Amino acid sequence: MVKNVSVKVDSDFVLLLPEGLYEIKRMEPRSKQRSIVVVCIFLAIAGIVIFGYFCNDQVCALTKRDMMMSSDVAALTSDTGNSVGKSSTQINNPGLSYEEVLNDDNFQFDMNAHDVMVFLHIQKTGGTSFGKHLVRDLDLKRPCTCQRRKKRCHCFRPHRNEIWLFSRYSTGWKCGLHADWTELTSCVDQELDKNEGETTKRRYFYVSLLREPIARYLSEFRHVQRGATWKTSRHWCLGRQATPQELPSCYSAENWMDVTLDEFAACDSNLAANRQTRMLADLALVGCYNKSSLPPHERNRVMLASAKRNLASMAYFGLTEYQKISQYIFEETFNLRFAIPFEQHNTTVSTTTMNDLTPEQKRRIEHINSLDIELYSFAKRLLFQRFEKLKAKDADFEVRFAHLGNLGVMRNGVTEFNWDSNIEDTSTERQ
Ligand SMILES: *[C@@H]1O[C@H](CO)[C@@H](O)[C@H](O)[C@H]1NC(C)=O
Ligand SMILES: *[C@@H]1O[C@H](CO)[C@@H](O)[C@H](O)[C@H]1NC(C)=O
Question: For 61-82, b where at least 16 C-beta lie within 10 A, e where not — what string?
Fold first, then answer.
């Protein structure tokens, strides 16, 4: 299926980019455009009236997301000079935003209705641990049932065998190994329809974790050095996979085992660099993996702005470095409780080669991860802003925070985890 690659960048994007307007492609001649605009306005008004009357709150909440970007997020984005408009390709369904969830006082993640949580798992961010917490440690009316040997759990709604969690340990990599924002938002809905044998209107809640970019990069480096490849990732965008010309392999053998850090950093098509930005951005805005469709600096600017916007609009994100705060925000956002406290691992820093880097290596790695560094600092500010806000609203904060993960129920089998030792998530399983 060939999708139109034209992408229009809307006005708030232009306003917030000081260097002015650019267009990726002009779509229609003027006069034709005007009549289309008139028809669109008419349809929009008719749509608002009809939709307003005939749809229930749960479904209509889907349409509110753009109106509800709070002033905080706006302040944060304009502060850094970046924000990005929505692509006009309407294939994506990015789900409900944090603001929508929090601005609704009666909000509940409704397992009985059509709510689905989608976990966007970026490599080496501690996502395997978090993914296990999601299937094993949430305090649910109907807990997920897990089969140890298959590393797969059934996470069903209380009264029907319908999935509420889209993640590696519940559905598997249905949208591709470590699928990114671009892949998930164009795939999850169809996959669930296929799975359930019917078309349903669902509410989606995207969740993800970010990690300090240099630590993450080095962790990925060591992982690849030990033989990990993720080579079955599809890198799907606008209806097709990235071609080998667009993403040349960095190595000719089966894998890149024993690669040195300098070789690792020297390969231009190594997706480890700025991985978090790339995986959170709407790649349709930059012509997907075809780097010649935009000048490099434009491409970077748009990708970063898009990643920030998508991150801020997700229902939830946490930071690996702040497990406790991340756990608290998750629980408050979804009104769900974990039966165990998230553990903070600091060990990675000591086992990394971070301290062994030469100043030249350090500079180079910072340079090739500069988008991620900016994204992470944006994420950190946003996380703490959310934390302060939730804290202020929570009369029981002190007690709650001191006893996170303690439901008054003793449980064994706390998920033990070391995010550097795990090589399993690179396997080719794609069920
Ligand atoms: C990449 O983009 C350039 C410029 O837009 C275009 O000429 C070229 O055909 C594209 N390459 C592929 C493989 O689509
Ligand atoms: C991690 O580091 C913090 C501060 O450096 C320390 O308080 C905490 O105990 C450490 N956690 C672990 C599990 O070592």
Answer: bbeebeebbbeebeebbeebeb
